[in-house]
Design brief:
With 253 residues, this protein is an alpha+beta fold. Helix content is 24%, strand content 25%. The chain starts with a strand and ends with a strand.
Length: 253
């Protein structure tokens, strides 16, 4: 089974590009999207061309903002939105599908913001989201994928010294949050296979030719329960796939 996760930075925008050809070629069994930036009906409309998949969405109350989707060839046993905490459940950031052997959760983690206005909120979010995942894990192993909006280690971004404790995505509080996920038994699949691989990024600024120069950040992840890691065959960053400021990431299980 191949699972792909992609922050598309607007499903309606990406659908006008090569998106459908890309998905046909990549042929995922499950595709998880973040930042759809559309209401549920608009996501379904934008994806109307996609055949052979069941489509599930979670959109924000605020229009044109955030939003997640799970697109699966196999119909899940159940699908549910959010994490049952009202403070966190306004922005369509979490969507979970239950399958026979695991839960799959797609997440678009809140960005702390250019002036770090949401850094305090982000810490609350990280703790509550981890508790949600650990609760799921009492029933079945968990696969969580998406834009986690943090570069975990210096190896995960091009300019760690210039960014550390200055900019959203590489603040110590965010790194601590990611440490908590790993210490709680969730395995970063890419680093499991490639512990020392450098210059492996999944997001690049639109400014200054960052992508062409590969001045990027690895902020898109697949984390899996410890009990599942021996079932994961591979983890990839599909940096040659364009269409968004993020590229897709994938695992095979």
């Amino acid at each position: 089974m191949k699972i792909i996760s992609w922050n598309v930075n607007g499903i309606r925008a990406v659908a006008k590009k090569d998106f459908f050809e890309q998905i046909k070629r990549l042929n995922p069994d499950i595709l998880c999207l973040q930042e759809t930036k559309a209401q549920d009906d608009q996501v379904h409309e934008a994806l109307a061309e996609l055949k052979g998949y069941h489509i599930y969405t979670n959109s924000a109350v605020k229009k044109g903002y955030s939003g997640t989707a799970i697109i699966s060839k196999t119909k899940p046993l159940a699908v549910f939105k959010d994490i049952n905490i009202e403070e966190h459940d306004q922005e369509g950031r979490v969507l979970t599908a239950e399958f026979d052997d695991f839960y799959l959760t797609v997440v678009y983690v809140p960005n702390s913001g250019s002036e770090l206005k949401r850094l305090d909120y982000r810490q609350t979010w990280d703790a509550d989201f981890l508790a949600f995942l650990k609760n799921l894990e009492t029933k079945k192993p968990v696969i969580v994928c998406g834009d986690l909006n943090v570069a975990h280690k210096p190896i995960d971004l091009a300019n760690p010294k210039a960014n550390y404790n200055k900019y959203a995505g590489f603040m110590q509080e965010e790194i601590d949050g990611m440490d908590n996920f790993i210490n709680a038994g969730l395995v970063d699949t890419f680093r499991h296979f490639y512990p020392d691989k450098e210059k492996a990024y999944s997001w690049w600024s639109f400014r200054g030719g960052a992508r062409e120069r590969n001045v990027g950040w690895r902020i898109d992840y697949f984390l899996v329960s410890q009990s599942l890691i021996n079932k994961v065959k591979n983890a990839e960053i599909l940096a040659e796939e364009y269409g968004s400021d993020h590229c897709p990431v994938s695992i095979e299980i």
